[in-house]
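During the first year of the project, the team set up a workflow for recording each protein of interest as an amino acid sequence followed immediately by a discrete structure-token representation. This format lets reviewers and collaborators read both layers of information side by side without switching files. As required by the reporting guidelines, we include two representative entries from the current panel. The first entry is reproduced here exactly as it appears in our internal archive.
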Amino acid sequence: MDVGELLGRDLWELGMEAWRLRTKLYGRTATYISSMVLNYTNICVVECDFCPFWRARGDGDAYALSVGDAVKRVLAVDAEHGLSQVLIQGGINPEIGIEYFEELFRAIKAKAPHIAIHALSPLEVDYLSRRERMTWREVLERLREAGMDSMPGGGGEILVDRVRKEISPKKIGAEVWLRIMEEAHGLGIPTSATMMYGHVEGPEDWAEHIRKIAELQRKTHGFLAFIAWNYEPEGNRLGAKVRYPRTSVTLLRIVAAARLAFTGESFIPHIQSSWLTNGPESAELAMYFGADDFGGTLYEEKVLEGQRRRSPIATRKDVEELIRRAGFQPVERDNWYRPARPGRG
């Protein structure tokens, strides 16, 4: 299936075909997960132009959590809400090595074994391999042994090096991102694939990005989900060049094309429409264009605080209300997209 041709089709015809496939696979259910985001540090030497989160060492609001403080945060949120997953991500902080993550993961598993650890990203794995003079495989094996259950798709942005050099020149290239994902899949570590659109890229770059993910999925079958999100120009350097975000029409086109592209031998079972990155209304509409997962509760998320203030979703009940409002049946899931026992709130 030609991805470029898919993306160029009439939006409503594309959406109707994606809706038919989504309905065949999942009916009118929509999944979500009770999760928190542990942003362990905002100090980052990669300094992506599109990111409002990173700080330099010495900045007044720069921070790095100790393992003890990080674990306390996880346990506090779990006690209040009941968690199935903690997403652990942060900046590339040269003072944090692999032992920090091993200690953190083991402490979480010892005190809250029911919480799945969805952690780090190819960017962080590459940094750790260079810092510790280890192979990617050795880093991933140690993280897995310490308790890492799965890996998010952070740092994917657009898997076209021309684009990556313009928006994040210090970040790993597309080929490295894909090779680390392949290494993780080979070790039995499932991952998600992400895509950040709406900046300096174009439809031909969307197509190449989706093609590369489909090619790897055909080989490894290790991606559980695909997540597209809109670049937000507020509070970052790239905003001086790209002043306005894309509309929901772009999200719907990409979601529908992804649902139809990730089929057959390249099947990625879940297409996520995150309410935080896309906005609640757009996320609801995307369910009719092929998305089947609504993301998570995302307690404690710090990277996109501006979006969170505009979308004050506080609990799993709020997420379920959005799903029902859109005409779907909410199903709480676990880290592996299996139905989960409902927690507290």
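The second entry, processed by the same pipeline in the following quarter, appears below.
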Amino acid sequence: MVDLIPIKKLYQYVSLQRQDLPEGRRYIYGEQKLPSVTTVLSATKRDKGALDAWVARVGEAEAERIKNEASLVGTYLHEVIERMVAYRNLPRPTNWEMCKGYELGYKIINTYFHNVNEIWGSEVSLYYPEKYAGTTDLVGVYRGKPAIIDFKQSNKPKKREWIEDYFCQLAAYALAHDKIHGTTIDNAVVLMAVRSDGSTAEFSTAGREFQGYKDLWMRRVDQFHEAQEKTGVCNEQEND
């Protein structure tokens, strides 16, 4: 990849250990067990009605099958990009999910990676002390501006107004990167490949709008920790 896109190691990124617990994923940073970005997003989701309605419509077993399949395809999509950036060979596909994930990963690369001017890090662990932690897909320069970049796959095309959580996720990574590495990342990009029709989409946010997502994200972080504290108090009272 360095022959196509400069890989610049401008920052020293730490590798954080992850733990999947009943209450959600946690990242270990020193003595802190920081909730993952996706755990916070899931716990503070404002409208779960659409998801519940979908599960009721298709049935729990079918919903679980669809979610697991999508998760596998997404994993293999990311693997294509991670290995290409790291100059590592891809394993030979052994199932159809791998084939589809590889296809979608290469579709994103072929469609959008000419806009990536620099890569600072791939699969980078980021944390905001005492608040949260997570792993961003890519950080670097996109269309000439420092940016957090995320790769998504979707069963069907999505409208911009449906992806608020994606922008909050990227806002979380930008804030953590700024906090630890002294940057001022003001751009976020979601690159999406769609399974149903083979299309792709680029969604971006910057400036005042992105600041709005950063503010929204931190409110959701505070909401998450307040709920955790209340749960802890209730548990203590029950044990007395």
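For the second entry, the following points were noted during internal review. The domain at 17-239 is CATH 3.90.320 (Lambda Exonuclease; Chain A). The mean pLDDT is 90. Both points are flagged for discussion at the upcoming steering committee meeting.
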